[in-house]
Amino acid sequence: MTQPRRRPPASKYTQDRQLPGAFEGETVTRRRFINGTAQATGAIAAAAFTLPALGFAIGPVFSQTPDTWQRVGPVSRFNSVEYAPEVITIEPGIGEAGYSIAYVRLHNAAIDGPLKDRYDHVIAISSRCVHVGCPVRWVPGARSFVCPCHGGVYDFRGIRTGGPPPRPLDRFYTMVREGQVLIGPRYSVNSELRRFSPRDPGEPLDGIGQFLYPARPSTAPAPPGAKS
Ligand code: FES
């Protein structure tokens, strides 16, 4: 029986394969080499543009919202008619860029109504404007929070009274433990001050807004008493 004839393996040298423009001892043609180099350079250039953009786009999905409780001082330092600005950490591990200001006061039954729960003895309002995130400032003479960027104005309870912000200022959970005020996770509120999982600036929470702008996965776990 005759064995089928095997074709000899192709030589790795371009000259042996009789490729046009081949040189002795060359294993890759210049055309293929230049094409490969150009494609690799193009891929590196494209990655340099797309990877950072991708990181910015999906990074927040994986970022962790700190839910640790921070001590800001004895409860005797606060009152129910004036806010005290307190520096808190909202993004750990990034130095001063992770600091923010919470405006803190005690619950005022005449203004805030009956206590909702044990997280309501102290009111802590976020200084981040819910329009596009500029820092708001408490102006005692006007009894208002004022945003310098586009003229957003919020009343004593942080409810919008003027300008483009789509909802009241966000708040932080608070607790009083052993005479100390602790500040916890941020939450958002609608114009009736009902609690929701934290939303981003620009996202309304009244009516259909709460469904059109659901919480991001990283902030989704609803804090105590909050709707998701
Ligand atoms: S960022 Fe505050 S009003 Fe625009």
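^ FE2/S2 (inorganic) cluster complex. The CA atoms of residues 108 and 154 lie 17 Å apart. The first strand starts at residue 70 and ends at 74.
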